[in-house]
Task: inverse folding
């Protein structure tokens, strides 16, 4: 049941998923965004100056835009388009964009300029792609720039002969709205990106674990094919052995060997006949077992001297349940967790009626920790030692402890995800603060229908 090595491999490859990872952003992406900003700034500059006849310090503005364009050109010739940037590089280039925008706004009215809203763009990009520290650096730089240009700036361009003077209270309101917008955008974008990355990494681990179970299940189909292929030559061996047995005299020294050869050939044919029957095979995605037999099979690897495991079935007749990998691996993870935390006893109680199949897994351990109870079912949430999932931005491995079974926080997430794929509703509770309780409910036909359950897309 355990897939520790596969999960550890996923943790080692997590830089592809996590906000704290290096090399998530391609240079081409930032350059294209900067070209877009350059085009927009240039269009606004010429429209205001020549279209509306609002005189701007064109030389200074064009110098700021030209430096931004020059940076793009230099980067394009220095690195290939597919070059991936580290967190530090992305922070540096976004910081340049913040300062370039601040310079343009300084020349064109400061925060009185409606385009001051564009400070949100580089901060939002940072929050969606960088770790918490670099995001805070960018947000702090943007906040400082907004504050400085609100105090020191050139007059807001206006029609010749006219001028506009916004009340200081109104300017303070603009400053407050920009600060609040920067803070809210940073927190919101970073939290959403962090949750998406966390779920992506957890689902990748689930898919890897499930792929292993499907490879094991494929052995059933392989055994069936082997049985059909080997049946003919074994039949030939049995016929030849029978003819040799008949042709040898009763006192022949080889008679016992020929009889043994025929008996073993018949035994092989009997074994292959069972493997060729999917209803009798214990492997393969098409196997069906009574609910009690399936639970006993899943429980067997976890029975030991320290923890007693009881399996109870209420209701009859017992349904014939499809032995699909999602069900076997999901229940196996729950039972493994229960035996890890139980003091001495784990109980599986199944209830069968005309409308549903319900299963409860209970243990007499400490139960779910209060600080993680509301987040049970999310990846990398655990009360085991070495938990790095609660409220941290960097979920990637920091040492060899993440290659161990403790502290990964994936067991219940994988189990819940797989069981929900079979149509189950999974709920976790702490009944009277005595141990943990996992309740699963399937509608009749979900796992005991005429066809095996199909994984759901949602």
Result:
């Amino acid at each position: 049941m355990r897939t520790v090595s596969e999960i550890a491999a996923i943790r080692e490859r997590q830089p592809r998923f996590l906000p704290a990872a290096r090399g998530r952003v391609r240079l081409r992406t930032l350059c294209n965004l900067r070209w877009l900003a350059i085009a927009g700034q240039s269009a606004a500059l010429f429209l205001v100056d020549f279209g509306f006849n609002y005189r701007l310090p064109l030389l200074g503005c064009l110098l700021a835009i030209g430096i931004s364009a020059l940076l793009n050109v230099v980067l394009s010739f220095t690195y290939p388009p597919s070059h991936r940037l580290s967190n530090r590089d992305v922070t540096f280039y976004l910081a340049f964009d913040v300062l370039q925008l601040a310079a343009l706004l300084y020349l064109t009215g400061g925060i009185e300029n409606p385009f001051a809203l564009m400070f949100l763009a580089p901060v939002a990009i940072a929050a969606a792609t960088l770790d918490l520290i670099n995001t805070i650096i960018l947000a702090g730089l943007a906040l400082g720039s907004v504050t400085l240009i609100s105090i020191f700036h050139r007059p807001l361009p206006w029609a010749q002969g006219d001028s506009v003077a916004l009340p200081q209270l109104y300017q303070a309101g603009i400053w407050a709205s920009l600060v609040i917008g920067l803070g809210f955008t940073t927190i919101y974008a970073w939290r959403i990106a962090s949750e998406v990355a966390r779920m992506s990494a957890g689902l990748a681990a689930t898919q890897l674990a499930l792929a292993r179970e499907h490879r094991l299940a494929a052995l059933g189909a392989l055994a069936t094919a082997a049985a059909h292929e080997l049946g003919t030559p074994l039949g030939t061996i049995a016929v030849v052995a029978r003819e040799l047995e008949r042709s040898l005299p009763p006192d022949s020294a080889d008679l016992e060997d020929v009889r043994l050869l025929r008996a073993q050939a018949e035994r092989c044919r009997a074994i292959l006949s069972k493997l060729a029957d999917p209803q009798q095979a214990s492997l393969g995605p098409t196997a069906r077992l009574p609910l009690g037999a399936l639970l006993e099979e899943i429980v067997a690897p976890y029975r030991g001297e320290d923890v007693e495991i009881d399996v109870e079935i209420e209701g009859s007749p017992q349904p014939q349940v499809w032995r699909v990998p999602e069900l076997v691996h999901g229940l196996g993870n729950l039972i493994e967790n229960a035996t890890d935390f139980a003091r001495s006893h784990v109980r599986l109680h199944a209830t069968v009626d005309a409308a549903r199949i319900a299963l409860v897994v209970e243990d007499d351990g400490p139960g779910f920790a209060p600080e993680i109870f509301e987040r049970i079912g999310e990846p990398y949430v655990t009360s085991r030692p070495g938990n790095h999932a609660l409220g941290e931005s960097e979920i990637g491995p920091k040492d060899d402890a993440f290659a161990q079974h403790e502290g990964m926080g994936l067991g219940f997430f994988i189990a819940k995800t797989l069981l929900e794929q079979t149509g189950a509703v999974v709920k976790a509770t702490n009944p009277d603060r005595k141990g943990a309780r996992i309740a699963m409910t399937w509608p009749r036909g979900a796992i005991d229908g005429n066809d095996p359950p199909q994984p759901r897309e949602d």
In short: Residues 219-276 form one domain.
